[in-house]
Design brief:
It is a single chain. The protein is α/β, with parallel strands linked by helices and about 170 residues long. The chain has a single domain (about 10-145), classed as Alpha-Beta Barrel (TIM Barrel), CATH 3.20.20. The chain has 5 helices and 8 strands, in the order ββββαββαβαβαα. The chain has an 8-stranded mixed beta sheet with strand order 2-1-8-7-6-5-4-3.
Length: about 170
Amino acid sequence: MSGDSTMKIVRDRHLVDDPWQPVGTEEPLPGGAIIVPVARWHEALAAGRDEDSLGVVLPAGAEPSELDGLLEALPLVAVHFESPGDGRGYSLARTLRERGFGGDLRACGMFGRDQVFYLARCGFTSFAPEAIEDLTSLLAGFDDFSLVYQPAADVRDPIDALRAARAGNPPR
């Protein structure tokens, strides 16, 4: 899971350099901002690393309770999708947001352009797909739909609220 610190990602709907380096379970801890499995977070902290430079990665099927007591300290949580059809990461993201995580929530692994809109609605703010080399094509996925039907972790107003506002009535 080693990474290149000059890798590009999509963050807040922009193509940016990724300051974070993923580090696997057996790799030595390099300098700079790193993303590690939860068990290594404690190891890195004990080794004197600053919390602001430590993010964690969870598999999409992880229990949110794995981060109990850590959410306020984490600047980044990466959720790794093993396959495009694994919807558990969406639920994990929504639950982390509902529990108050306000940092960068990153989708990484196997997902496609057609999923970006929905990932963002669940609260993801950055995206590092494994199978997409041209990240500019990923950007178009944010605009696949102009209206939404239900509230979510993003800031879009549902269509019933827009209709009610247009009619001068509060939404139900």
